[in-house]
Write a structure and sequence with these properties.
alpha/beta, single chain, globular, 6-stranded parallel beta sheet, 4-stranded parallel beta sheet, 750 residues, 10 strands
């Protein structure tokens, strides 16, 4: 216990007259198997503990779990989550119980949510363990590595990481992990068993280099050597005395300011699993030696290793100002930008790193991914083929083949991978996109359920049973919001199907911007306007919930084939008074018909570059159709609107009517039709039953399919596709003809 903690305990005891305990102290008792004492300590949990009552439930749950009283433990964890639905310790506890029951998929989801809320070593280790049991070795490696970097005291985590590395073919790394486990627990039978297996493998097969999933750890590969002052440190390290090497290197650091010593010490700290100390030590060194580029660069790479993307970016940018051609720093900065989904900024850095080391396979691999993120698919697949010929297998080849339109070839490749890794979330999620784009809905939705574990950054889960189609008479069920606005509107088309199950209570969590419209559209449900944060505090207002279901799980139940998509004239309902207001406003602007246009869609990660064009592209419409045109484009577009007016195609524009989505729904309802690229505008128009012409890339996102002429979700839609990549001339000419013909016919009565 630190001196500060001891002082706090002494003060607290003198004030209260009795011993109180912190959660960490109680967990230490649990680790020592002093469960009776731990249970007593829970009753004296410090009143200063954050979320005190819920934490008591969680600690009791952990104790009961270790006493093998799973039912009682589960009751405690659920009691904690009733108080705070987003409490990480409660979801971690449920993960423990579910894993014990063999339900590793759901256990992984609760562990993932705990990690997103609080990425401590226990939560990360549990997530890695669940993925390991599912044989998702690639998914298991990152959380296990991070868990050991935060705490190297858990032999089970080291053992699990060793299993992952052995499965990858990294036998030296696996051996090091098993030895770490035995340092913590010399009698650990499974670690001894795995070492014996390694001996047998290495005896029968000559060692071969492992192919790293991540980039090489340049920080550890580029340490200075040949310094006599570090000879003793290196000898201790090579003899296996890592604590002794660290102690000797720390002593050297106190004797002088040479940069090679902190660099070596940071390596030793990192090898011991203490990434936090490695970062703190380099930060302290730079305070007194701010111009040391090698230490600054090493710190940037460590911040990258710790997933501190912005800090890594800042540190590496400063380092590159002093040394602009250092490949490891260029690559590190590019990776930090990629993690922040800033692909355009990362691309030239990857390109420069590759120009400096054109034969480096790891840099080539990242360049291939960068090309994919830039939608330069032909170049990406060419680079991937070069890498494949060089012996490196890549998991994202199928994605690129899909975006090239080689869908069946992509499916064949990904099916072969899944045959060996049937529960791999990334592969299953990629296959979902391929099958859904081919309108193979049953297969696609079954794989789409893996989206949470694959695209995990914003994953959330509720502490209630997951609905799997059970009868809902006299039952209460929550629909949990997920994904972006367009998808929420699209998947909301399944809510009438769920209502047909006649639940006693249906609670719909919805993005705050869409909630008002959904509340009007589904008056029998209770709609919760939400910011979709992880604490989910709104859920505490509801008791005795029987089930929850993520919104995007509903199609797996209700849209298993193309005939299950219902014909409808709109399931969203705009405010009737505001519709009248906007129709009146439009009539004051000019004669009808009235058409809305939108020309930008997506973000960098959702292929904005191939889904968007300049508004001038719409100019032929004004020549083909006499109409009043309305801007429906979200964002800062005033300059573009002004440019269209100067060009001779004025756009009526009301910014508030676009940012306020309930007003947006009313404005669209007042129009005669909408022409848009693939974006949220399409979903609103289709869900409101308005005619909408969708200008799609040659290979669009899965929602739009590859061959269909309308979105199955929206009977009022018509898809007009590119015939050549990046060429919008054909689609614009086609939409001019179709809108002109539509206008020439008698428009439906308003």
């Amino acid at each position: 216990m630190s001196l500060l903690a001891q002082l706090f305990k002494a003060i607290e005891h003198s004030v209260t007259g009795k011993r109180s305990w912190t959660p960490n102290e109680i967990r230490e008792l649990i680790e020592r198997k002093e469960l009776t004492q731990a249970l007593k300590a829970v009753e004296s949990l410090s009143p200063h503990t954050h979320k005190h009552d819920a934490m008591q439930h969680c600690l009791r749950g952990e104790i009961l779990f270790h006493q093998r009283l799973d039912d009682e433990a589960q009751t405690e964890f659920q009691a904690a989550l009733k108080i705070f639905p987003g409490m990480p310790e409660g979801h971690y506890g449920l993960s423990l119980i579910l894993a014990e029951q063999g339900n590793f998929d759901t256990a992984a989801r609760h562990a993932l949510f705990a990690v997103n809320l609080q990425p401590d070593s226990r939560h990360l280790a549990q997530l890695g363990y669940c993925h390991l049991e599912l044989q998702n070795y690639q998914s298991a490696e990152a959380p296990l590595r991070r868990a050991t970097s935060l705490s190297d005291k858990n032999p089970h985590t080291w053992n699990n990481l060793g299993i992952v590395l052995m499965a990858k073919g990294d036998m030296p790394g696996a051996r090091q992990c098993f030895m770490k486990a035995l340092q913590q627990n010399p009698s650990m039978a499974v670690a001894h068993q795995h070492l014996a297996e390694l001996d047998a493998i290495e005896h029968s097969n000559p060692p071969r280099p492992a192919l790293s999933i991540e980039t090489s750890d340049y920080l550890l590969d580029n340490q200075p050597n040949g310094d006599d002052s570090l000879n003793q440190v290196i000898l201790l390290e090579q003899s296996g005395d890592l604590p002794g090497a660290i102690e000797a290197c720390e002593a050297l650091l106190l004797q002088g300011n040479e940069a090679n010593v902190p660099l070596k010490l940071s390596q030793l700290y990192t090898n011991s699993g203490d990434l936090e100390s490695a970062i703190a030590m380099l930060e302290a060194y730079l305070i007194h030696n701010p111009g040391c580029a090698s230490v600054s660069g090493a710190l940037g790479l460590l911040q990258l290793k710790a997933s501190n993307w912005k800090l890594a970016e800042s540190q590496l940018q400063m380092t590159l100002e002093h040394d602009p051609d250092q490949t490891e720093y260029l690559l590190g900065l590019a990776k930090s930008l990629t993690k922040q989904e800033r692909f355009e900024e990362a691309a030239p850095l990857f390109a420069k790193a590759l120009s400096l080391k054109p034969e480096n396979r790891e840099i080539k691999r990242y360049w291939a991914s960068s090309l994919t993120n830039q939608c330069r698919y032909e170049e990406a697949i060419q680079t991937m083929e070069e890498l494949k010929a060089d012996g490196l297998q890549l998991g994202d080849v199928s994605t690129v083949l899909g975006y090239l339109g080689r869908t069946e070839e992509a499916l064949a490749k990904i099916n072969a991978q899944i045959a060996h890794q049937p529960n791999h979330p990334d592969l299953r999620f990629q296959r979902a996109f391929l099958n859904l784009s081919l309108e193979k809905y049953a297969e696609g939705w079954d794989d789409y359920k893996f989206r949470g574990l694959s695209n995990s950054r914003n994953y959330r889960i509720l502490p209630f049973p997951l609905w799997n189609g059970e009868p809902l008479d006299r039952k209460k069920i929550i629909i949990l919001a997920e994904q972006g606005l367009g998808d929420q509107v699209m998947f909301a088309s399944c809510i009438p199907d769920l209502l047909a199950y006649t639940p006693e209570t249906l609670i719909i969590e919805a993005n705050v911007r869409a909630a008002k419209t959904l509340e009007r559209s589904f008056p029998s449900a209770t709609v919760i306007a939400s910011s979709q944060k992880s604490n989910m505090a709104w859920a505490t207002d509801f008791s005795n919930i029987d089930y929850f279901v993520p919104l995007a799980d509903l199609p797996c139940r209700f849209r298993r084939n193309k005939w299950s998509f219902p014909e409808h004239s709109g399931y969203l309902v705009a405010d009737p008074a505001r519709v009248v207001h906007w129709r009146t406003t439009l009539e004051q602007c000019g004669p009808g018909p009235y058409y809305g246009v939108s020309w930008k869609g997506g973000t960098e990660i959702t292929r904005k570059v191939i889904r968007s064009f300049s508004p001038e592209t719409f100019f032929p419409l004004s020549k083909a159709v006499a109409a009043t045109w309305v801007c429906l484009q979200y964002g800062e577009v005033q300059n573009e609107v002004s440019g269209m007016k100067a060009l001779g195609m004025p756009l009526e524009y009301w910014k508030k009517a676009i940012s306020d989505l309930d007003e947006f729904a009313a404005l669209i309802s007042a129009l005669d039709g909408v022409i848009s690229v693939c974006n949220t505008t399409v979903h609103y128009a289709g869900a409101l039953g308005k005619p909408v012409w969708v200008l799609a890339p040659r290979i669009p996102e899965w929602r739009y399919g590859l061959h269909n002429t309308k979105l199955p979700w929206y009977p009022s839609s018509h898809i007009i596709r590119q015939t050549r990549d990046n060429d919008w001339t054909g689609p614009i000419n086609a939409v001019c003809e179709e809108v002109a013909a539509f206008s020439a016919r008698k428009c439906p009565p308003f």
